[in-house]
Write a structure and sequence with these properties.
Blueprint (H helix, E strand, L loop, with lengths): L14 H24 L7 H17 L23 E3 L9 E2 L2 H15 L9 E7 L2 E8 L2 E7 L5 E3 L2 H4 L15 E9 L2 H13 L8 H9 L4 H5 L4 E10 L7 H10 L9 E3 L2 H14 L7 E8 L2 H7 L9 E5 L4 E13 L5 E12 L2 E7 L3 H5 L19 E7 L3 E7 L24 E2 L8 E2 L6 H11 L12 H8 L9 H4 L2 H6 L13 H12 L3 E3 H7 L7 H11 L2 H11 L3 H8 L6 H12 L1 H11 L3 E3 L15 E5 L7 H10 L3 E3 L8 E4 L5 H8 L3 E3 L1 H7 L4
Parallel strand pairs: 2-11, 19-20, 21-22, 21-23, 23-24
Antiparallel strand pairs: 1-6, 3-9, 3-10, 4-5, 4-7, 7-8, 10-11, 12-13, 12-15, 13-14, 15-16, 17-18
């Protein structure tokens, strides 16, 4: 009788046992993916699937040489989405920022008021509505007829689910007296009663029930066969809009009510409030009613009510400034802490992770939780103040786990009454567990970091993973597992970004070509090489972000790219800034670039090994300026603008946002490269310096006239 390896502890597996177990898990999980995504008939529960996938990943981590080409770790979803055509959203579908406390909501209100120049006594109304836990959908009407429906997708491009959306009874096929163009946005969901009835029918048919209403709704809407969607009891709440040929109203609430007159269902709990105290009271009311609503919600969304103020506030890169989601407290559960693992990131940070006895929290099986840093484990924050009443965390403890924002597992408490007698305080390592280099904690830094740099395999691998990530080069077919495979390969290694762009040439002269390897073939190999070739041309901001330099995120990469315009100017300035004080000051003058970020940037280009790696990469690329077609006719496009003094018709934040929207670079100080100074009352040294340098100076009215806002 063949031995059942599924119950064998991972540390007890032999190489042959691990190989057999990885084969079993690959077949099991790939079948589960197909059943869930393609056949709409999952056999494994979410908890079972997560547990088996975690086991697969843990075995792969212990036996990296056994990772299979068809490993479930390489898979994201399955075939259904490839069956849908794509729809580009004419107006991007944004996500929302989150608030988790009353203080967060008050800070949101303060930020809005500050941006608009309103004090705490001035009127500012908000709407508050339940945050439906479903799938976002945008439905487009032309001359009153439903012509298209698309999922959110990545915000810019969604899946075309028009025929499926037509089967939802809450979505009208024709609207009388609608604007010529009308995009209605909302959430597809399934009520608790309908979900229970659907699962009862699933069981009667001998099919596996769905794990929760949201998954059932999402899977039903994204069926390739619209008749399956039609058989599912999907509903739709309308709460927003995209492109409009005519306004629906002057306020958020009046516009939503207009959608109701068109035949859409809106949430009856949506109300307008005059202050944050009223908003919080409504939040608590909805929270108390949560279990009786008949559908899933995970918080309350607040939106500035006046649409003209929404337009003034505008958007960040992915979220509106005028709205926020106040999430309900995450569900909590107690479990045992079985170990503390140290992971090394791309910047050398040593991050402690709690290894937990698996426990279900908020419908998801949790087996790991972040422990932030060594201070957090000791029961204190970065300033030395107590957290958890000063209780430290030890292996063997019973800990309370919660999922912050229903996503990231964290530990909130420790039960000292159940602490094992032999539990010892955790000793944080002072050497890197990956390369043995010193792990040091610099003054003012909450994190201990490995000083090994590129000799540390963990840092090198994580930098490569970041380089190919979606926000960076986004190379299809070269994900986390492939990077790990190529990094450890002796024949076709990828040890630094430049190696990615020589892979095809090296493969052609190799005796062990990629297409001949297990799990690869001529088509898959050529597809990877083509994807790499397609990324040889890259926008400057993408490249700056992809380098993985500490403190350089997507926003700061965009700022740097807009300011310097080309790779040559960027590289020359950063290189010179470490030696030339004037250029260093110009770097700091970029609004949004501080000393910490600038120092990190300059240090990266000053280190010989890292600079050489960057130079080798640049030789293989065509680096493009950031596209900025929408501001070509702007009177300030490409100019460097400085605002000083008191602005009376707009706030400084609003002025900056408007200038950047028009393609200008906003600096914090005046230099010889400044093109324009906008000076309000009280302008001092900046105005004087601008005058001495012969820089054009405008008052606020002159600025508004220049940009067409007068």
């Amino acid at each position: 009788m063949e031995h059942d390896l599924s119950k064998t502890k991972i540390n007890d597996l032999t190489v042959e046992g691990a190989r057999a177990e990885l084969k079993r898990l690959a077949e099991l999980l790939l079948t589960a993916n197909r059943q869930y995504h393609a056949e709409d008939a999952p056999v494994l529960s979410d908890a079972e699937y997560d547990r088996e996938k975690q086991r697969n990943q843990a075995i792969e981590a212990r036996f990296p040489e056994l990772v299979r080409p068809d490993s479930p770790s390489f898979q994201v979803g399955a075939a259904p989405s490839s069956g849908f055509s794509k729809i580009k959203h004419e107006k991007r579908m944004m996500s929302l920022g989150n608030a988790f406390s009353v203080e967060d909501v008050q800070e949101f209100d303060a930020r809005v008021r500050s941006f608009l120049g309103l004090n705490s006594d001035q009127a500012l109304a908000y709407t508050a509505e339940p945050k439906i836990d479903g799938l976002s959908l945008s439905v487009r009407y032309e001359n009153g007829d439903l012509v298209a429906a698309a999922t959110r997708g990545d915000g810019a491009i969604g899946e075309d689910v028009t025929e499926n959306a037509k089967t939802i009874k809450d979505i009208p096929h024709h609207i009388e007296n609608a604007p010529e163009i009308l995009e209605v946005r909302g959430e597809v969901y399934m009520s608790h009663t309908d979900f229970q009835n659907l699962n009862a029918r699933q069981l009667e048919l001998g099919d596996k029930p769905f794990s929760n209403p949201r998954n059932a709704a999402a899977g039903s809407l994204r069926q390739l066969d619209a008749s399956i969607t039609k058989s599912r009891p999907l509903r739709f709440f309308a709460y927003a809009w995209g492109v409009l040929s005519a306004p629906l109203g002057d306020t958020q609430l009046s516009s939503v009510k207009t959608l109701s007159t068109f035949g859409f269902k809106i949430n009856e709990l949506t109300q307008r409030f005059e202050n944050t105290d009223e908003m919080i009271d409504h939040y608590r009311l909805i929270e108390r009613q949560r279990s009786t609503l008949g559908y899933d919600i995970d918080g309350v969304v607040y939106k500035v009510d006046q649409l003209d103020l929404q337009r003034r506030l505008g958007f960040r890169s992915t979220t509106p400034r005028w709205a926020i989601a106040h999430k309900f407290p995450a569900e909590r559960a107690w479990t045992r802490l079985e170990g503390i693992d140290i992971q090394v990131g791309r910047t050398g940070a040593l991050s402690p992770v709690a290894r937990l006895a698996p426990v279900t929290v908020g419908g998801v099986v949790v087996s790991n939780a972040t422990l932030h840093n060594e201070d957090y484990i000791l029961g204190r924050d970065n300033s030395g103040a107590d957290i958890r009443n000063g209780k430290d965390i030890r292996v063997g403890d019973w800990v309370e786990v919660y999922r912050a924002g229903d996503v990231i597992p964290k530990i909130s408490d420790v039960d000292l009454s159940n602490r094992p007698e032999d539990a010892c305080p955790f000793v944080f390592p002072t050497t890197c567990p990956e390369c043995g280099s010193d792990a040091v904690r610099e003054p003012g830094d909450a994190v201990r970091r490995c000083v090994g740099g590129l000799i540390c395999p963990a840092q090198a691998v994580e930098k490569l993973k970041h380089f190919v990530s979606r926000g960076a080069f986004d190379i299809e077919g070269l994900g986390t597992k492939q990077i790990e495979m190529f990094y450890g390969d002796d024949v076709l290694p990828i040890r630094e970004p430049a190696d990615i762009f020589t892979l095809s040439d090296r493969d052609r002269t190799s005796l062990a070509r990629l297409q001949n390897r297990d799990g690869w073939g001529p088509k898959s190999a050529e597809k990877l090489f083509a994807a790499i070739e397609n990324r040889r041309s890259v926008p400057l901001n993408k490249l700056i972000y992809a380098l993985g330099i500490r403190h350089i995120g997507e926003n700061s990469a965009n700022l740097l790219a807009r300011n310097f315009g080309s790779w040559e100017k960027f590289e020359q300035a950063v290189t010179a800034a470490g030696k030339n004080h004037e250029i260093w000051e110009e770097l700091l003058a970029i609004d949004g670039i501080g000393e910490v970020l600038a120092s990190s940037l300059v240090a990266a280009f000053a280190q010989a090994s890292e600079r050489n790696s960057i130079d080798r990469l640049a030789q293989h690329l065509t680096i493009l300026p950031v596209e900025n077609t929408s501001t070509s006719d702007s009177p300030v496009a490409g100019k460097t603008v400085v605002f000083t003094g008191s602005l009376e018709k707009m706030t400084r934040a609003e002025a900056k946002a408007r200038a950047e929207e028009l393609g200008a670079k906003v600096a914090g100080s005046v230099s010889s490269k400044t093109d324009l100074l906008v000076a309000g009352p009280g302008a001092g040294s900046k105005a004087k310096k601008a005058s001495e340098l012969g820089i054009e100076i405008l008052d606020e009215n002159g600025w508004l006239t220049l940009v067409g806002d007068a």
